[in-house]
Amino acid sequence: MGNVLVIGAGGVGSVGVHKMAMNADIFSKITLASRRKFKCDEIAKSVKERTGVEIATAELDAMDVDATAALIKETGAELVVNLALPYQDLAIMDACLKAGVNYLDTANYEPEDEAKFEYKWQWAYQDKFKEAGLTAILGSGFDPGVTSAYATWLKKHKLNTIDYIDILDCNGGDNGKPFATNFNPEINIREVTAPARHWENGDWVESPAMTTKYKFDFPAVGEKNMYLMYHEELESLKTHFPEIKRARFWMTFGDAYINHVTVLQNVGMTSIEPVMHEGKEIIPLQFLKSVLPDPSDLGELTKGKTCIGDIATGESKDSAGQKTYYIYNICDHEECYDEVGSQAVAYTTGVPAMIGAAQVLKGNWAEPGVWNMEQLDPDDFMDMLNLNGLPWEVHELDAPANF
Ligand code: NDP
Description:
Blueprint: E1 2-7, H1 11-21, E2 27-34, H2 37-51, E3 56-59, H3 65-75, E4 79-82, H4 89-99, E5 102-105, H5 120-123, H6 126-132, E6 135-138, H7 146-157, E7 164-171, H8 185-193, E8 196-200, E9 203-207, E10 213-218, E11 222-229, H9 233-240, E12 246-252, H10 255-266, E13 275-277, E14 280-282, H11 284-291, E15 305-315, E16 322-332, H12 333-340, H13 344-362, E17 369-372, H14 379-387, E18 392-397
Helix pairs in contact: 1-2, 1-13, 3-4, 13-14
Residues 7-13, 34-36, 39, 60-63, 83-86, 88, 106-107, 139, 141-145, 183-184, 187, 295-296, 349 line the site of NADPH dihydro-nicotinamide-adenine-dinucleotide phosphate.
């Protein structure tokens, strides 16, 4: 049915192409391209062994717009799935416009020298994609991604309004390492060391990073400390659901993780400002990344479960007054490893990337323009989550979130 070019052979890219190969009726031709071709070839070998499907591979620097456009044309792809880093988003969007194909990613653009999480750069492509008759889907991972589709599903089927929303991201997994991030360390540390920000009564409320915490009892995981953080979907949710009075994002971290990040931050190792080292300019955070474990090597070691979801309160569709729902997925690290050779954090991102790509290829998400996930019809996406390893549950709660 569809021909895709996937860019990025990291943890998420690996899961994405394995799951595409398992849906060969939708993904009839898959090419995986990345900065280092040997990583694509290793993934292609695993895909062949696990599914019997052959995928093509290529070397590509996605910052090179002409080279990316040429590869798109050479492969005949109709959709580019960007699973590289947020720094490449705009270059890949430019290449899609140049080659005349659709685009999908899982993380918003960030300039490499500024840890700014804003959609303004990608939203500025709205007219270009519209005029070209092409579709760009932003943030089709888990958060952003599934958590935004959950909100839209609640608004379509359960609530007339979403007045309060909390996104709760819990990783109850343990990889046995004293300190390791579960996706790209540079991107992860930029995110967690940024000031916390949430949306309340028409304004952003800012607080220092990792200072507001709450102990929450997560389904299938148990009690964990979750910390208030800024996350990019808060900006798009409050824009597309203007009735929202409060939107917050929470992520769990163990004490050891918090202690390590605090020390690394205090000594300047998380900085993205260049420093001179033995006559050469280096970025401390990039150096730190090179000594930390590679998240794609942690699959075999990681045990436990993730539980990610939304608690949303709004005016009920079926009765007078407000109702509160908790909608979430539970994912098991070891089961993911057995299925595709990756831990649950890469799995919970790569599967929705595949399902979002399937929506474009099936023609369900075909409106020209640049769209965030909560702007798109959620029903087939939600059905595919149930069929492709990320089943979800929705429960009515007795009361709104009290934290
Ligand atoms: P990795 O660092 O494991 O993988 C990124 C891949 O992109 C690597 O293979 C890297 O190549 C490749 N790459 C980097 N720069 C270029 C370039 N210029 N040209 C071509 N390829 C390039 O990251 P993850 O797999 O952990 O994450 C992938 C994306 O998913 C990130 O954008 C991340 O922010 C996002 N994400 C989204 C989540 C969500 O829920 N929405 C959750 C987790 C991640 P090389 O191997 O040579 O370095």
